Amino acid sequence: MNNKRLWTRLLGVEGVVVEAVDWEPEEGLVVGVRVGWRHRHRCPHCGRRSPREDNGAGRRRWRGLDLGVTRVWVEADAVRVRCREHGIVVAAHPWARHGARFTRAFEDQAAWLVTQMSRSAVAELMRIAWRSAERIVERVVAEARARVDLLEGLRSIGIDEVSYKKGHRYLMIVVDHDRDRLVWAAEGRNAATVSAFFDALGPERCAVLEFVSADGALWIEAIVAQRCPQATLCTDPFHVVQWATAALDGVRRDTWNRLRRSRDPGERAAARSLKNARFALWKKPEDLTETQQGKLASIQRFNRPLWRAYLLKEQLRLIVQTKGAAAVAMLDAWLAWAQRSRLPSFVELGRKIRRHRLGIEAALIHRLSNARIESANTRLRLLHRLAFGFHSAQPAIALAFLKLGGLCPPLPHSP
Ligand SMILES: [Zn+2]
What is the mean pLDDT of residues 227-241? Predict the structure, then answer.
């Protein structure tokens, strides 16, 4: 292999002719190249070969992947061309995305790393500012989304929301249940956001949707019923269990408030132990630690209403796991039990479940749960904690697509 071909292999770039390799003490290796004949003078937007306009953009450098411990730069003339459709533009450089100051291989590697490690680790390893990493992710995702239509072939979807900034800012997300991937995301959580999704989907693709699951919010269900009346609306069972957990916590709080105001020192001690019993009540029984099991046992002995509430919550969780016709029958029994439980928050929960009865039964019978959207939700939260202190929605959305939309590029390895 001659030296020039060796250099193009090392850089992981294609369509270039290496002209010179220099060492600059302050910068590292600078590899001067020109665009190969086949890729020359092409519009960056449409790829059409276009007449050369001028050398107006001068000489440019792109950061490439380090070689060993050394920074590497690709340097070339940035020619401007006159595209019939896009006017005068800087011609495409086959080794980089349009507008980038990094090579494609460098960006692909940075994007991959962002899904794997903390922001500070990525910034330090790649020797870039975090803001640059955010822009890389946005560019990579924009390119991938232009290539694949994630909204094609949807049959069964889930609509949910996820907070991306300490619980105050929300993204509306839509997941494809069949392929287990994120297909749409936008800032906000209101009627306009959900409508924007159905607008993007278009009437023809709305008409073939079979299942739509959501968190039971009536305003979402109203929009779904209007936009795709043929679809079966399912109330996400995960959220039903969440409602039960909230009702249980209401009972625990009421009990705690009553006990801590008591004159009986024994009851006040019981109040103190209840304050820390929250996680014991929330967790699945099989995940409890020994101390938490002890707490539950003491609730069972000394606090019958709270114990009843706990059993009601656990039974509902069991129903959701059971699914099918058996689960529907169990739900009937549960509703009767909740009604005579003498626990106001569970009587109220029973009413709420009756209101969502159709959607919950649909989810149980069709064995459709938002387990996937919820796992997507969990993965997203983890990812956001790991990587971003978002100031705006755009990088949060880009990162979500990178990781959960299947849009992350492979590492730019070559043998
Ligand atoms: Zn063009």
Answer: 87
* Sign of torsion over alpha carbons 318, 322, 323, 325: negative
Ligand 1 center–CA 56 separation, angstroms: 18
State residue 73 phi and psi, 5-degree precision. Answer: -125, 140
Question: What is the distance in A from the centroid of ligand 1 to the CA of 241?
Answer: 53
Alpha-carbon distance of 221 to 233, in angstroms, equals 7
246-247-252-253 Cα dihedral, nearest 10 degrees: 70
C-alpha neighbours within 13 Å on the C-beta side of residue 128: 24
The average confidence (pLDDT) of the chain is 87
Give 79-134 pLDDT, tens digit per residue.
999 999 999 999 999 999 999 999 999 999 999 999 888 888 999 999 999 889 99
Using the mean position of ligand 1's atoms as its centre, give its distance from the Cα of residue 287 in Å.
Answer: 59
Stated pTM of the model:
0.78
How many whole angstroms separate alpha carbon 51 and alpha carbon 70? Answer: 37
Dihedral pair phi/psi, residue 85, rounded to 5°: -95, -40
DSSP secondary structure, 8-68, as one string: HHHHT--SEEEEEEEEETTTEEEEEEEE-GGGTTB-TTT--B--EEESTT-EEEEEEEEET
Q: How far is the CA of 92 from the centre of ligand 1 (A)?
A: 10
Helix (H) or strand (E) holding 359: helix 357-365
| β-sheet bridge partners, residue 64 | 72
Query: How far, in Å, from the CA of 50 to the mean position of ligand 1?
Result: 8
Q: Which amino acid does the sequence have at 139?
A: R
